[in-house]
Specification:
86 residues, alpha+beta, Arc Repressor Mutant, subunit A, 16% strand, globular
Length: 86
């Protein structure tokens, strides 16, 4: 299996987050990459105001501390442009 580029992972992340906010763990599973990669990509995108990362003291599903990622308005615009390119 060929390794995906960071761009491909980011594009897939944007498409997933268009639907609803997701935790790092859910993104890791859906993207098929590791937790640290998801965390680093999200931190980078947060610097550019494309996503917002919220720290949750208790995740609604498992009660453990978690991080939830959602697209900002600017991130939604970029996701729409990416969708058109597909």
């Amino acid at each position: 299996m060929q390794k995906r580029t960071t761009y491909e992972v980011k594009k897939d992340l944007f498409m997933l987050l268009r639907e609803k906010p997701l935790s790092y763990t859910k993104l890791q599973t859906k993207l098929g990459t590791n937790y640290d990669s998801v965390k680093n990509i999200c931190k980078e995108l947060e610097v550019y105001d494309l996503v917002k990362v919220k720290e949750l003291a208790k995740h609604p599903e498992n009660g453990k501390p978690s991080f939830e990622v959602e697209l900002t308005a600017r991130g939604q615009e970029i996701a729409k442009k990416m969708k058109k390119d597909l």
